[in-house]
Amino acid sequence: MEKEKEKENKRQSIRIKDRLLLSFKKITKEEYDAKVKNYIDGIEDPWIDTCHPGFQKEIKGYLKNLREKDKDLAAILEIFDQKLNLILGLIGTEETFEQDGLPKKLYKVDLSAQGLGFFTTKSFERGDILSLTIGLLPEHYFFSCFGKVVRTKKKDNKTFVGLKFIWITEDDKEKLIEHIFARQVIHLRMRRQGRHKE
After folding, report:
1. ∠16-114-181 over CA atoms, to 5°?
2. Coil vs helix vs strand at 58
3. Exposed, middle or buried, 186 (CB in 10 Å: 0-12/13-18/19+)?
4. 160 touches 130 (CB < 8 A)
5. What is the pLDDT of residues 5-51, one digit of tens each?
6. Which of the listed CATH numbers 2.40.10.220, 2.60.40.10, 3.40.250.10, 3.40.1190.20 matches domain 2-28+103-197?
7. Whole-structure pTM value
8. What letter would DSSP give residue 101?
9. CA-CA distance, 66 to 77, in Å (whole number)?
């Protein structure tokens, strides 16, 4: 049991340099707590903002009623709802993309399944909570999560912000780990090819 836990910790702590689509905004502790509570109560889905509001409200109402009768079925349908929302966001027009708020700006990041670090011109302090939307490339897999600033470092006119994920779904974490392993394999191959050419 202890070995499995250690293996999982190693798996999650593998860190790579990467480029991904990223948008972020600072939220208060109260806003974060409210989002967590609303999600647990089935009122709000903090993960995905890419669905048309009318549909989202109607679906949430049905899911809340179903949850009282069959929790397992409601949980499965909620996962399908989230996946469909992502697809709707991805196949929308440029205008829809703007409204949905999917990130379009590329950032160079230090990335692991436990958190990420990046340079920004915005100012943050340790303890700040950020609402994040991340797009993994080349998969174009978008997900939302929350992170807490654990370190900052000024360099020139920018600040390096180190974040620890404080709320991310297991599905998204697994997808992130798969992405990191795939990128790591590519980096190793490129290094090997570079050595053979010399």
Report:
1. 40
2. helix
3. exposed
4. no
5. 666 666 667 889 999 999 999 999 999 999 888 888 877 765 554 44
6. 2.40.10.220
7. 0.67
8. T
9. 10
